[in-house]
Design brief:
- The protein has 434 residues and is α/β, with parallel strands linked by helices.
- The protein folds into 3 domains: 2-135 and 306-338, 3-Layer(aba) Sandwich (Rossmann fold); 142-300, Dihydrodipicolinate Reductase, domain 2; 345-428, Alpha-Beta Plaits (2-Layer Sandwich), CATH 3.30.70.
- The protein is built from 17 helices and 19 strands.
- Helix 4 (87-96) packs parallel to helix 5 (106-123).
- It is elongated, with a radius of gyration of 24 Å.
Length: 434
């Protein structure tokens, strides 16, 4: 029986889960594989504070990453420190030292993936990253393997557990955003400094990885439109729910004739859409292909052991030689992808939810619909609420399909009307077939 030697860098939440699996599960590997997976060493700058794991005497423990990267016995480097630096330098040095890489670092791959893939190709090594997107949800493997015969038309879904928990709590318990976020932090579902999650950045990193793979293309991460949930108001969740919609933070990418539509934003879904019932910290990703139609992958999108499970699965793929074969053959990894035009948010077409705060007087509705009509925006429904807020009446509308640039121009004009007070709230709508 041959052996694959693993060097683990990063002993945080996921890293400790991986270490536990590799130490405690040798019988599972022996039962399932004609291959031995052996943890050779672990590096972490705070390793003396993270000695909750009882490592065998054979496992090197160090604060110095280079002791693992330069170790000639190590075949695979598992990078789990996160962030850009020194993670990028660790990955590059590992590749140049002849090590395959397994990582869960979505930020690194979103910002520097093509560059790192090129280095891996030149080094004759591979980079595996299933855990970077959906934790234990096998979405990377599905795009790479199971759906390879499809022309992928769209990839969209809920890819961040923190924001999904917050919006679920706001919707189900009718609490404001700040209270829902505080609850998520108390329960450990949100970081003390949650901006990466609630501002949509984490979702954008994951979407970038998926879109490059699914659409066989390359583009700049900076071109992705990103909008978080911190400005979502409870009243809009309530009004939208009454109209038959559920609010989720969606990561959306679609292949259009004139380029790639790729964005992260709060989005209304019909109550009967499969993603509407994905609640709490769970994630789900829909993939639409010309052969499969629409398929949804669902599961825990974060967490110590679910993510560790995906990392260890990648380690096994590398150890069995499958990762190298795939990495050398799939275009997104080979550097043979063409740059694709990313559509500006003003060019997308969708339906919209609009809420205006207006003075209750005759002619208001006509003034607003007139401006919308001048910008080629037609209305599908209108609800004028009876309740007043500071002597203002909420006026809620749903539009038909419209171009965002036209909507933005119309909102500027509408907000300038004397009868409209405050800033107009609007939310994009996603239909199953759009």
């Amino acid at each position: 029986m041959t052996t694959s030697n693993i060097g683990l860098i990063g002993l945080g939440t996921v890293g400790s889960g991986v270490a536990e699996m590799l130490i405690s599960n040798p019988p599972i590997f022996a039962h399932k594989l004609d291959k031995s997976i052996n943890l050779v060493g672990v590096a972490d700058r705070s390793i003396d504070k993270k000695r909750t794991i009882q490592f065998p005497n054979s496992v090197i423990t160090t604060q110095n990453y280079d002791e693992i990267i330069d170790n000639p016995e190590v075949d695979v480097i598992v990078e789990l420190i996160g962030g850009i630096h020194p993670a990028k330098e660790i990955v590059i040095k590992g590749l140049e030292n002849g090590k395959d890489i397994v990582t869960a670092n979505k930020a690194l791959l979103a910002l520097h993936g093509p560059e790192l893939f090129d280095i891996a190709q030149k080094s004759g090594k591979s980079i595996s990253f299933e855990a970077s997107v959906g934790s234990c949800i096998p979405v990377v493997a599905s795009l790479r393997d199971s759906f390879i015969a499809n022309k992928i038309e769209g990839i969209y879904g809920i890819v961040n557990g923190t924001t999904n928990y917050v919006l679920t709590k706001m919707n189900q318990e009718q609490v404001q955003y700040d209270e829902a976020l505080k609850d998520a932090q108390i329960k450990g579902y949100a970081e003390k400094e949650p901006s990466t999650d609630v501002d949509g950045i984490d979702s954008a990193h994951k979407l970038t990885i998926l879109a490059r793979m699914g659409f066989n293309c390359d583009f700049n991460y900076s071109d992705v439109y990103v909008e978080g949930i911190s400005n979502v108001e409870l009243k809009d969740i309530y009004y939208a729910h009454e109209l038959g919609y559920t609010l989720k933070l969606l990561a959306i990418s679609k292949q259009r004739k004139n380029g790639l539509e790729i964005r992260v934003n709060p989005t209304l879904l019909p109550h009967d859409h499969p993603l509407s019932s994905v609640n709490g910290v769970f994630n789900a990703i829909c993939i639409r292909g010309d052969a499969i139609g629409e398929s949804m992958l669902y599961g825990q999108g974060a967490g110590k052991m679910p993510t560790a499970s995906a990392v260890v699965a990648d380690i096994v793929d590398v150890s069995l030689g499958r990762a190298k074969i795939t990495f050398e053959s799939i275009k997104p990894f080979s550097g043979n992808c063409k740059k694709i035009n990313v559509l500006d948010i003003s060019m997308i077409k969708t339906r919209y939810y609009l809420r205006f705060s207006v003075i209750d007087k005759p002619g208001v509705l006509a003034s607003i619909t007139g401006i919308l009509g001048n910008h080629n925006i037609s209305i599908s429904s209108v609800i004028q609420q009876d309740s007043k807020e500071n002597e203002l009446v909420p006026l809620v509308m749903m539009t038909h399909l419209a171009e965002e640039g036209n909507l933005q121009k119309a909102i500027i004009e509408i907000d300038d009307l004397d009868v409209v007070k405050g800033k107009t709230a609007f939310l994009r709508v996603e239909e199953a077939s759009s």
